Amino acid sequence: MLLLEPDDQRRQAVSDALRAWGIPVTAVSRIADLERWPIGDTVVVDAAWFTPWWQTVGAAHVIVQVDTPEEGVELCGDGATAWVCRHCEPTAIVSAVVAVGMRTAV
Predict the structure, then answer these.
(1) Structural domain boundaries, residue 91
(2) 81: left (phi > 0), else alpha (psi -120 to 50), else beta?
(3) Tens digit of pLDDT for each residue in 54-81?
(4) What is the percent of the chain where pLDDT is above 70?
(5) Whole-angstrom Cα distance, residue 82 to residue 12?
(6) 61: exposed, middle or buried (C-beta count within 10 Å: 0-12, 13-18, 19+)?
(7) Do residues 65 and 46 lie in contact, with contact meaning Cβ atoms separated by under 8 Å?
(8) What is the value of pTM for the model shown?
């Protein structure tokens, strides 16, 4: 999975939480740092960086970090798979990643 998070401390905390659950993660601070497109992967991005383009390049799911539930609902209407609060605990992101993975497995 791909985590796009510019804040170094948050990126590390979320990456550590994902890896603790056995979820392999590529964590970058900006798109230019990507070594490959997230084909078939789940992507976690800030709402400001969400675009349906993520699915065009092959992402299986896109989880957006938002400020409000209304923003999350709007972005899901625009193609995001799920949303989490921008300042949530890293475990909430793990739960969202696991949940969308389970939707794929069913």
Answers:
(1) 2-105
(2) alpha
(3) 989 999 999 999 999 999 999 999 999 9
(4) 95
(5) 22
(6) buried
(7) yes
(8) 0.92
Does the CA dihedral 70-72-75-77 come out positive or negative? Answer: negative
Among 63, 64, 65, which residue's Cα sits nearest to residue 103? 63
Where residue 70 sits, what CATH number does that domain have? Answer: 3.40.50.2300
**Cβ(33)–Cβ(8) under 8 Å?**
no
The Cα–Cα gap between 55 and 66 comes to: 19
DSSP letter string, 76-97:
HHTT-SEEEETT--HHHHHHHH
Q: pLDDT band at 101, cuts 50/70/90?
A: confident
Longest Cα–Cα distance in the chain: 34
Q: Bridge-partner residues for 26, per DSSP?
A: 2
